[in-house]
Design goal:
With 131 residues, this protein is an all-beta fold. The protein has one domain: Immunoglobulin-like (Sandwich). Helices cover 0% and strands 44% of the residues. The strands form two sheets. Strands 1, 2, 5, 6 and 7 form a five-stranded mixed sheet that branches. It has a four-stranded antiparallel sheet with strand order 3-4-9-8, with no helix packed on it. It is elongated, with a radius of gyration of 19 Å. The chain starts with 6 loop residues before the first strand and ends in a 16-residue tail after the last strand.
Length: 131
């Protein structure tokens, strides 16, 4: 049974962000697994120590920096592979326990676990026989 938890993408731009160069929106899947939501983002070429995840005022921000493959002196005959950082934000409902959010990264895939608060978890209601 799906819990009514809203994880909506937000197009907020923070004024303090100074971004140079090209950046990409990573493709994501969001799954509901038991007592948590799981966000899976494709971020190829990012090293785990170049990933930042922030949660503030109900907004989850994921960022990843990618090192250039070549130096500036390369003379390309054809260049189809774009290099740039990854950046995406999501508005997360208050039914997520922000103190327990955790993540792991491997093989170009970032997985962010968003545990539900106790009140949002499904529970069974016992029915007692009357009289």
């Amino acid at each position: 049974m799906a819990t009514d938890i809203n994880v909506n993408q937000t197009e907020e731009n923070r004024a303090e962000r100074a971004r140079t160069g090209q950046y990409y929106r990573p493709h994501v899947d969001i799954l509901e697994e038991g007592d948590e939501l799981v966000l899976v983002a494709d971020m190829p070429g990012v090293k785990s120590d170049a990933i930042e995840i922030d949660f503030q005022d109900g907004v989850l921000t994921i960022e990843g920096s990618v090192e250039p493959r070549y130096d500036d002196k390369v003379n390309f005959l054809l260049c189809e592979y774009g290099i740039g950082d990854f950046y995406r934000t999501f508005r997360v409902s208050e039914q997520i326990d922000s103190n327990r959010i955790h993540a792991e990264y491997g093989n170009g895939v970032l997985t962010v676990h968003l545990p539900k608060v106790e009140e949002a978890k499904p529970r069974k209601i016992m029915v007692n026989a009357a009289g």
